[in-house]
């Protein structure tokens, strides 16, 4: 379970991360990253989007549980004040836990690179 202090729950936070943040995708998921959240800078906040395109309710919940567990183990790597939205794609349903972890790490690294690039351009 992801600690409550690190859960993104407001629709406005999701919108801010998806529309104003940087994005990096892989085969099974897309990571949206923003560093300008309205939250207390005590830690990062993370939200998940798993649509019906991924599968039925059982499949979607399985994917969400796997993603929550992956992110919980990596919370220390995210800087305080960061907002992350993880959007699962349909191939995530048939993916293994290890593959989701590899794709998440890779997409997060790509989003962080893009965020640094945007920060230096501003």
Task: Give structural attributes.
122 residues, Ribosomal Protein S5, domain 2, alpha+beta, 3 helices, single chain, 43% helix
Task: Describe this structure as you would to a colleague.
It is a single chain. The protein is α+β, with helices and mostly antiparallel strands and 122 residues long. The chain has one domain: Ribosomal Protein S5, domain 2 (2-Layer Sandwich), CATH 3.30.230.10. Helix content is 43%, strand content 17%. It contains three helices and four strands; from the N terminus they run αβββαβα. Strands 1-2-4-3 form a four-stranded mixed sheet, with helices on both faces. Helix 2 (57-73) links the parallel strand 3 (45-49) and strand 4 (83-88). Helix 2 crosses helix 3 (97-121). The mean pLDDT is 90.
Layout of strands and helices, then pairs:
Blueprint: H1 11-20, E1 22-25, E2 29-34, E3 45-49, H2 57-73, E4 83-88, H3 97-121
Parallel strand pairs: 3-4
Antiparallel strand pairs: 1-2, 2-4
Helix pairs in contact: 2-3
């Amino acid at each position: 379970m992801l600690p409550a202090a690190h859960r993104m729950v407001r629709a406005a936070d999701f919108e801010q991360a998806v529309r104003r943040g940087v994005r990096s995708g892989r085969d099974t998921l897309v990571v949206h990253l923003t560093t300008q959240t309205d939250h207390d800078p005590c830690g990062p906040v993370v939200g998940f989007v798993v649509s019906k395109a991924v599968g039925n309710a059982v499949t979607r919940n399985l994917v969400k549980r796997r993603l929550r567990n992956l992110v919980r183990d990596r919370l220390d790597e995210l800087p305080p004040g960061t907002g992350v939205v993880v959007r699962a794609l349909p191939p995530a349903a048939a993916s293994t836990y290890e593959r989701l972890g590899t794709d998440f790490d890779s997409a997060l690294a790509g989003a962080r690179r893009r965020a640094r690039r945007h920060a230096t351009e501003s």
